[in-house]
Amino acid sequence: MIYTFLSPREAQEWMIEQRELFVKQFNVSVVIDVLRATSTVITALSNGAKSIIPVSTVEQALDLKHRHTEYIIAGERGGVKIEGFQLGNSPTEYTEAVVRDKTIVLTTSNGTNAIIHASNLAERVLIASFLNLTTVVHELDGYDSSTNIIIVCAGNNGEISYEDTQVAGAIISKLIKGRVHYLSDSSKIAMKLWDALKKPDFSGEHAKKLSQLGFDKDLELCQKVDYMPILAELRDGKIIKVE
Ligand code: MLT
């Protein structure tokens, strides 16, 4: 089964409904915040960062920095770098010179929370973006069609994100080629969107906002399909590159 939460609100409602069965019901989850948190994570790991620790709040990030002064604290609110933090959430900032061998604590408005939610839903949490699209598909392809896969889109402040839905659709479309998977309605919607577009279309609300904020270079990078073919997974609270 491939189930898709197009927004975190759906994930939260589902978890409330399933309260009595509160166990990790999915074998594997795939988290998408293509603009920009999961693209940032993939860029950082691809450029040699040791790990990324996703946290929900600014306070949690500051607390970790206090206890581990060597960590880099990074993140955004309203799209812009948090005051006093070392990095924002622009993947273009995460160059090799800046991140090699570093542990980065990241807090973003939607993406890092989606990753944390997913860890309550599934045994494994994979990080997806256009940058590592086919690598994620290959990993999922290793499972048989009875596997419960959940795709969690971070969305845009509780709303569905046009761009996240495209990545979800691209994964599903590539994955089901020649195979029989049960698809939830949200999965079908995402897949049909991607099959109609066939390439990234960054014209949604958050893309427009990022452009207004001067992040056009991020938009360019985040739509490069398979540009950074790495597998990234959350393990013991840290996202690492899986070799
Ligand atoms: C988020 O987590 O909401 C996003 O990654 C926001 C952003 O574009 O920085």
Provide key terms for this protein.
single chain, 243 residues, six-stranded mixed β-sheet, binds D-malate
The number of E-state strands comes to 10
- Kindly state the mean pLDDT as a whole number? 94
Could you name the ranges where pLDDT drops below 50 across 5 or more consecutive residues?
A: none
Annotation field: number of helices: 10
What radius of gyration results from the CA coordinates?
17 Å
In whole angstroms, how far apart are the ends? 27 Å
Q: What small molecules accompany the polymer chains?
A: D-malate
Give helix % range: 25-40%
Order of helices and strands: EHEHEHEEHEHEHEHHHHEE
- Reading side by side through the largest sheet, how are the strands ordered? 1-8-2-7-9-10
**Main β-sheet: number of strands, strand sense, barrel status?**
6 strands, mixed
Beta-strand percentage range: 15-25%
Q: Give the overall shape.
A: globular
Helix- and strand-based class?
A: alpha/beta
What does it look like?
Helix 6 crosses helix 7 and helix 7 crosses helix 8. The longest helix has 15 residues. With 243 residues, the protein is an alpha/beta fold. The chain has a six-stranded mixed beta sheet. A four-stranded mixed beta sheet has the order 3-6-4-5, with helices on both faces. The protein has ten helices and ten strands. It binds D-malate. D-malate (MLT) binds next to loops.
